[in-house]
Structures are given as structure tokens and as C-alpha cells.
Amino acid sequence: MEQVEDAGLEERLKSALWLSIGKIVDEETMKLGVNATPQFIGALTEMVWSQIETVGQDLESFAKHAGRSTVNVSDVMLLARRNEGLESILRTFVEQAREAES
């Protein structure tokens, strides 16, 4: 029964992701004056879903390795360490969030 519920939840999440990606693609293609097929949006959605699963597993592994059951900022920063642009954006965001808390 739980597997059926998990499968239903996964399908709803994928549908929501497809809808969001479709909106982004529509906005960008209108700006560029090109068209994107539903197959392109579907393939992009599958690629993003796969990336989300991988990132989630990595974050869980980092937290578990540190002896925690909860993912925190240090895990996210560790994940972003090989992407200098992303790491810079995240560092700025974290610093701004910490300043706002103070």
C-alpha cells in the first residue's frame, strides 16, 4: 500500500515539475522566437528529475557521513564545491540570510 502511495506522490511531483519546466520553456522560447516540442519538455523534465534524485541522495549521504539525520547548509555547500558560480551564489545567499537573522 505504501509503495502505491509513494508512486502516486512521485507522479504528482513529476507532473508539477513538468508544468513548471513547461512554463519556463514557454517564456524563454517566446523571448527567442522559437518553438519547443512537448517531447523536449518531457525529456528536460526527466533530466531534471534525475538530477534532483542524485542531489538528494548526495545530500543525504553527506549528512549521514557527518553523523546527522538532517541536511544542513554545510552539506549543500559541499555539494556545490565543484561549481564555482553556484558556490558563489549560494555563499552570498547564506551570508545575506545570516545577516538578516542578526
TrEMBL record:
CDD domains for this protein: HFD_CENP-S
Gene Ontology biological process terms from the UniProt entry: DNA repair; replication fork processing; resolution of meiotic recombination intermediates
GO CC terms in record: FANCM-MHF complex
Keywords associated with the record: DNA damage, DNA repair, DNA-binding
GO molecular function: chromatin binding; DNA binding; protein heterodimerization activity
PANTHER family for this protein: CENTROMERE PROTEIN S (PTHR22980:SF0), CORTISTATIN (PTHR22980)
Family: Belongs to the TAF9 family. CENP-S/MHF1 subfamily.
The name this protein goes by in its record: Apoptosis-inducing TAF9-like domain 1 family protein
